[in-house]
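name: query_chain
kind: protein
chains: 1
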Amino acid sequence: MPLAVRWPFPAGPPLPWALASRLVTGLVGTYSCVWTRECPAGARPGGGGGWRARGGWGGWGMPGVRGRGAAFPCRAPQPPSPRPGYLNRLRVYNAEVLHELVERRGPCTPLLTLSNHQSCMDDPHLWGSLKLRHVWSLHKMRWTPTAADICFTRELHSRFFSLGRCVPVCRGDGVYQRGMDFILEKLNQGDWVHVFPEGIGRLLAECRLDPVILPLWHGGMNDVLPNAPPYVPRVGQRITVVVGRPFSVRPLLERLRAEGTSTVEMRKALTDFVQREFEALRGQARALHPAP
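structure:
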C-alpha cells in the first residue's frame, strides 16, 4: 500500500526542520513525563535488583567492561513503596540501565529497544520513564516505525509525527520498504531506534554496527488509554515498566554468516533469539504488574 502523503523527511535535514523537531519531541516528551511520571521510589539496579554490567557498559563504547555484552542478573526487583506520580503512577524497574545507555553509549553504538504493544499511546507514554534532559536532547531521542495508515494519512499529521521522529511504515509492504530502509540507516548512524518485535530480524541482519538490544515490558498502558471508545486517556492509573538485560546478537550473527545461512533463515533465527529474550522478561514483568 503506497504512502498517502509525500515522504516527510528532508535530505539534510535543514536547521529549521531540526529545530522544529527538537521542539515537537521535547514538548511531547514533557507531556509524557507529566502524564506518566515515574514514582520516586523505584527499584535501582544493584540495590532493589535488576541488571548491571560488569564495571559499566564498556563493551559498547563505555569504559570498564571486559567483554562485549557482559551482564549479570542481580537479585529480583523489590516492589517500590507506593507514592503518587503526577496524573498516573508509573513505576520503572531498572530505569538506570535505560538512562545510561541513552546517555553514555559510544557514538558508533546503536541502541535498539523493543517493547510489547498494549495501546496506540504506548509510545509516547512509555517515555515518561526518561528524564527531561533526555526528551529535550534531540540527538538522544528515539526513532520509531509508525503505522502509515493511522498517523500519515494527511500532510499536517505527517509533518507532526515526522518531527516527532516517527517513520511511516506501510502495512503489508514487508520489511523491504522505504520506512524500514530509513530506520536501518539510523541504526547504521549509531542512533536509538525503538520497535515492536515484528520486523527486527532484517534490522539486526543488515546493520553494519553492533547494536545494544534492550527489551522493555510494560503493563497498564491500556488502562491509561483503553482500546475501546471513546478513547479518552484516564488519570490515576497504575503503570509498570520493567527494563530487561541488554544483550548483543553479534556472536549468533557471525555464526549464521559462517554457516552460509540464507537471508530468510537468518532473519528468522535472529528474530527467534530476540523473542526468547523478550519472553523471558514477560514473566518477571507480569509478577510485578499482575492483571486485575
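note: Residues 26 and 136 are 4 Å apart (CA to CA).
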